[in-house]
Amino acid sequence: MKLLVHLSIFLSILFVSLPSSYSCTPNDKNALLQIKKSLNNPPLLSSWNPRTDCCTGWTGVECTNRRVTALSVSSGEVSGQIPYQIGDLLDLRTLDFSYLPHLTGNIPRTITKLKNLNTLFFKHTSLSGPIPDYISELKSLTFLDLSFNQFTGPIPGSLSQMPKLEAIQVNNNKLTGSIPNSFGSFVGNVPNLYLSNNKLSGKIPESLSKYDFNAVDLSGNGFQGDGFMFFGRNKTTVRVDLSRNMFNFDLVKVKFARSIVSLDLSHNHIYGKIPPALTKLHLEHFNVSNNHLCGKIPSGGLLQTFEPSAYAHNICLCGTPLKAC
């Protein structure tokens, strides 16, 4: 009987002394606690208790094989800057600091240590300053969303050197300058471009015409010149929004992909006639208002199903849904 008791005690001690297959490593736990401290111990992270396992019950923390692989700090009263200790979570795949209006500063260089990172969301914060070139060192990154912040300066040309990137999402910032020429030489995927509501300007590099973008949104900037590079009869583009810019080209010369379902060219200086080819498209959204278009709206397809406002404030457009010619 005594032998069984001793054996039971020995096994209990052994079990306690061995690290759990689910508990996070000391290095990851220490990094998380340093991050919490740097963010002034916000209530959002009150579950980050040093006496508990960081892979079990810590808000926003996910683990795989005892390593922290996902960290989400979002929608809370968090103030401060992105802690440099973020770079110590070497196995991170997903990093999300979003909907944090009091998060300030810039993106720390230590983020480049996260060689396995594939999803990076820093959106709806007060991050500012230039988008750093070194973000392109994250070669495994697939999803990048830096929208709705206060970033200034140019779009880094180095973003074209991220081979797995599926979208460049930097809309709703204060970015200036033009689209980098390097965007005419993406090294891997052809990413969707979400550059809307910045202070970007200039002409679009003609070299972009060789790419088949799935979605492009340049709305709410100051781009000029031609927009032909986003169109082509043999492309598979689905959505194009060039609205609220200063584009100036002849619409009738544009060759549209049959795959387009959303086309917004409103509030530009586009001239000419509406091409009959648009009657062949299965459009869900269409707007060419506030341009310099003229002539009869082609009959057929879906062009007559849109509200008159989609054609309003042109020079001399006529025909359904506008007044008869």
TrEMBL record:
Keyword Hydrolase: no
Signal peptide span: 1-23
Domain Leucine-rich repeat-containing N-terminal plant-type: 26-64
Short name of any one Pfam family annotated for the protein: LRRNT_2
PANTHER family linked: LEUCINE-RICH REPEAT PROTEIN FLOR 1, POLYGALACTURONASE INHIBITOR 1
Family: Belongs to the polygalacturonase-inhibiting protein family.
Name of the featured protein: Leucine-rich repeat-containing N-terminal plant-type
Provenance organism: Arabidopsis thaliana x Arabidopsis arenosa
